[in-house]
Amino acid sequence: MMRRVESVWLVFFLLGLLLLGSLGTWDETPPFWYGAAAVAVAGVGALLSSQRRGGRPASPFCMGIMLLFYAYVAWRALNSEVKWMARQDLVFATTAVTAYLLTALRFTAPWRRAAVLGVFALLILANTGTGLYQFFQDPEYMVFGDLGIGRVVEKSGSGFFGNSNHMAGFLILASFPLLGVAVLDRGTALPLRVLCGVVFAVAGVGIGISTSRGGVMGFFSALALFICLALVVMRFSSAGHRKSSGIGWWFSGLAGGFALLLLVTSFALKRFYGGTEVMSSLSGRGALWDAALEQFQTSPLIGTGARSYEYMERAFRTLDTKWMTWAGEYDAIYAHNDFLQCLGDYGLVGLLLALTALTVHAVHALRLISRTRSSAPAGEGGGGRGLPSGLAIGALCSLAGLAVHSLVDFNLHIGVNVVVAGILMGFLAAPGFTRTAAAPLSPSAVPQAAPDRAPPSPPPFSPMLLILSLITAGLSVAVLDAGRTLARADYYWAVGFREVKSAETSAELFIAAGTLEKAISLDPLNAKAWGFLGVVNTSVAQQMPSKFAAIFYEKAYNQLTHSLQLYPKNPYAAGLAGSLADYLRKKDEAEALFATALRWGLNIQSVNNQYGDHLAIFRKEYDKALGYYVIALSLSSDKAVRARIQQKIDKCLAKRKQQGMPASPEASLKPVEEPAAAPGNP
């Protein structure tokens, strides 16, 4: 009966993985909640499962360091400056740790692990199949585009993911455990092992059509590591047996597969980029990494807070940082290097805890493989030890490959990839080996007795398992309780954001405002929703007669200033609020708001444009205004925007001429001094 109950929680867990693999493919939580809720239901069910376990338990040291790392992440997220943004990390981390604990404690039986691998295989096939259609037929196709999961439209395959780099990261994580089963699990039927190998090859094709350079490096680094570890394990387990002659065939097959996948990947990269020389290009990432290092120096020990790179990076830009000026008002958001972003957001403590957790789990799994195989009775070969070894070696290679990929991308800020990484860590903490009985004495050394037909005694009760089950259930309840309200709030936020982007008429703007107000009523900490609501009301005011416009401008000003209370380092909200303060004749407030905007967005086109208006229109300081207008002009590639800014420059030059000031256009190419920051402003 208890086994049937536990199977119910496994079904919820597998359902959660399917939902995460198809909807949790974004860097935000709106569609992530569905899969997280299913995983959380399985976590609550851990309390209703048997607290007795046979076999080899998960390493207490591994689980301890993992929970310590999670506790630190949660502490930094809860104490970060912008709690709405930090919550993204917290939700992802909580779901990942719940999946980790369930994998290491509950779903350890071979058939349950096989079920998890089956879901991995389904998601690999679905993502690669969708990616092939995008690659060869329709680059704009997106399966769940209506749910707000956008896609970077380019001639590559991204599957269910918004970016092909992140699909590559998922394929790296999900594929190598399958390869481990195909190569090392000699106890599984040959057709199933062949199927696992075929799915791995499909994942390799998916890596190729993703055209992700970081994904290619991570995938082939992991494959090279797998070949080395698999040969060592196979040689070690075959010592003293005649099976060692088959190792050469396995090596030849793996090497041939390596070469074939490399050929497919080279073809895809050449088709996408027109050559392979692009592999040496950082595509502007160097400036992002420099910003992360400068961010780290502001708080080396504990970092500046979860997801704080998004607003800290703006403060370190210069006029030479033009990597995104072609896209207009666009922010990096991520450092495109998970290690550097962890260093900046969580400090040395966070990075060392992450690396320690990975190292401890890897060492534990490798030692367990070595000890278990060395104690295997003669003639057992791989037998029942094949699946645990395959899972452990595959999981280790997956995480190593993702680590290489994470040097140039941000896969660990994508929901499903974080959760799958947690599952793989669970495989390392408890690969699934059974306890090895002591070697029997020689039959001649002891008298023969009648066989004992008594049934085996049940495994003893485990207090530690009960405590860890309580922790799992507690984290799951937290996810379910938060998601009960925040899932709806995030849904309205995603819908409202899309409505704002596409709204043109007053009616459409009112609809977008209503949607954003629903999001705010459910989640008052959503600083961006408050800010966009201010933008909407500003646009409404611009379409109203002047006698009604002041009402909407006042409302927009209050919403923007409230957004700044929740997100103090937002230069966009501060710049627009400063312009509204000018209109509303709030002189002191305008100066303070522009001080904030310039402190955190000096290299942003709209901020310089707005501050130039402030200087030219309200302070009549045309000489100073010229400098900021010229900066705004240099930061924009939009012809219409540039034309409007040029008109303002011409007016300032005309005003200078009227005042009898000498023309000095070269002096206006540099910004002048910033206004003094108001007390209390960051």
Question: What's the β-strand tally?
Answer: 0
The overall pLDDT, averaged over residues, is 84
Find the structural class using helix and strand composition: mainly alpha
Please state the oligomeric state of the protein chains shown. Answer: single chain
Major β-sheet annotation: none
Shape: elongated
Low-pLDDT runs:
239-247, 276-280, 377-383, 437-441, 664-682
Q: How widely separated are the two ends? A: 60 Å
Helix content: 55-70%
Spell out the helices and strands N to C: HHHHHHHHHHHHHHHHHHHHHHH
**Percent range for β-strand residues:** under 5%
Q: Give me the number of helical elements.
A: 23
How large, in whole angstroms, is the Cα Rg?
A: 29 Å
Give a structural overview.
This protein is mainly alpha-helical. The chain contains 23 helices and no strands. Helix 3 packs antiparallel against helix 12 and helix 7 runs parallel beside helix 9. Mean pLDDT is 84; it is low at 239-247, 276-280, 377-383, 437-441 and 664-682.
Q: Could you provide a short overview of the structure?
A:
It is built from 23 helices and no strands. The chain is an all-alpha fold and 682 residues long.
SSE topology sketch:
Layout: H1 2-23, H2 32-45, H3 60-78, H4 83-105, H5 110-136, H6 164-184, H7 190-210, H8 213-237, H9 247-273, H10 285-298, H11 309-315, H12 338-374, H13 386-405, H14 415-429, H15 463-502, H16 506-522, H17 527-542, H18 546-566, H19 571-583, H20 587-601, H21 605-618, H22 622-634, H23 639-658
Helix pairs in contact: 1-2, 1-5, 1-14, 2-4, 2-15, 3-4, 3-12, 4-14, 4-15, 5-6, 5-7, 6-7, 6-8, 6-13, 6-14, 7-9, 8-9, 8-13, 10-11, 10-12, 12-13, 12-14, 13-14, 15-16, 16-17, 17-18, 18-19, 19-20, 19-21, 21-22, 22-23
